[in-house]
Amino acid sequence: MADIKQAYLDFQGDMDSIMESVLCSTLEDESRIRAILESAIKDEQLPAYTTFTKESAHKQRARKRKGDQEAKEAEAVRHELGLADSSDSLRMLIQSRQQDREKQMDSFISAMEAKYCENSQKGGKKGSKKGKK
Fold first, then answer.
1. Is the pTM of this model over 0.85?
2. Where are the residues of the annotated region Disordered (predicted)?
3. Within its chain, how far is the Cα of 60 from the centroid?
4. Could you state, in order of their start, the residue ranges of all structural domains in the chain?
């Protein structure tokens, strides 16, 4: 609640900016956030900014359209990544990517070993002859 009031003060009542800055808020939370702010204005805890009190219906509809568009984009990305509705799908995706990274690291290390590590049979001292004089 303090975060909502602080966002209201920071953005001088601009509901677009308030909705973007309040953590974990969605389009469905707008009416609840608006009620909190209106109550605080009524109780004179917050000043009444005209950008908030006289917000046009057009601006509210534009915010709703933008939220709906973002929801559609998020759904498309979810399908593109192959995430199902369950929470296990995200865990499985993370584990799959982690395994891919491990394989890449193993192949990188193998390539570095092949490039920089000498074969132990090639090494040795040249010209050393034991027991011959």
1. no
2. 53-81
3. 26
4. 84-117
